[in-house]
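Form 12-C: Joint structure prediction
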Amino acid sequence: MIRHALETVSVWAVPFLLVAIPFVGIIRKVKVYDAFVDGAKDGFNVAVKIIPFLVGILVAIGMFRASGAMDLLNAALKPLLQSTGFPAELVPLAVLRTLTGSGSLAFTTDLIKTYGPDSLLARMASTMYGSSETTFYVIAVYFGAVSVKRTRHAVPAALIGDLVAALATVAICTFMF
Amino acid sequence: MLNYIWFGLMAIALVVAAFNGTAAAVTTAAVDSAKTAVEIALGLIGIMTLWLGIMRIAEAAGLVTLLGRALRPLLRLLFPEVPAEHPANGAIVMSLAANMLGLSNAATPLGIKAMEELQTLNPEPETASNPMVTFMTLNTSGVQLIPSTMLGVLAAAGSRNPTAIIATSLVATFAGAVAAVLSAKLLQRFFPVARRQPEVAQ
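Section 2 - Result
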């Protein structure tokens, strides 16, 4: 019921906003088309400004993955995480999730196929995927768009959040299923 | 921080490649990743242009200010540095709402818009401000009400009950978001904004 309502909102939100915002503008005597074009002209520059930041981050992550260093990192993290009852099969996903969206999606899909879509591991993996974002991608895009180079505590704070989300995933799935 | 992580990822890749004999794969990955990054950025041009235009109308109509005012108590708690009537408030609300609804096409442009508004308040434009980092951690925790991508994958794989993960994802994502925001608040004092040396007048 709630889910159905939320899905309806998701489907209608964009077309609704695209009409409702200019509609309020018309009522408030805004020259809506002029305002739209004026604001929209920055779109190209913002996208181009992101390029150096995104190339930098994605190349470093791509090289790291291709070298096989990921396996070493997983091996190093495994004993640490396992002491908290974290399943070994999910350690690579926890790492991958912060680094690449497409990579972690492929890993999760694979795991679902291997263990079956209603297995505990599959549910943990999909919960983990669904409850987090590709941290380094978000950081590159958002800070890149405003040309911020010194990110201060953004990376450690975001990674702590990711770790807590991963641990919470295992805890809540163990409890629920 | 990012300097060391960035260099570290590549340096480790080189060392591990030497042991694994994966140098050719690393080369391909570097070239392909650079290409993918540009494609992603260029792919943003269309939706970026659309939402920045719509947001300008929303600003001119006073909607952004209104939205910021409506959620002022929450925003003051999360972003005490942002003044009450600043357009950053409304932009932050719009971006987080788009995230929660899973409107990924709108969420990125709106998030960037919010970052631009926060940048206007930032005394050191090359260094992240406290509200920027807090806002960023809310985004990296990916707060989403319905994990639609995963529901699709589970359904396609023949799950009998794909929606079982909605509740678990909600709990996990909120736990992550709370932890991320608390860390941002606790860590900010340990990462001071380095002031530039004042230039000596000649």
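Section 3 - Comments
The CA atoms of residues 67 and 84 of chain A lie 29 Å apart. Chain A is about 80% helix and 0% strand.
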